[in-house]
Amino acid sequence: MADEIKDEIKIVAELMQDVIEDRGVPRNIRNTIEQAMEKVTKKNPEPMNFSSAIYLLDDVSDDINMPYHTRTDLWEIISKLEALKEKMK
Question: What is the pLDDT of residue 44?
Answer without folding.
Answer: 87
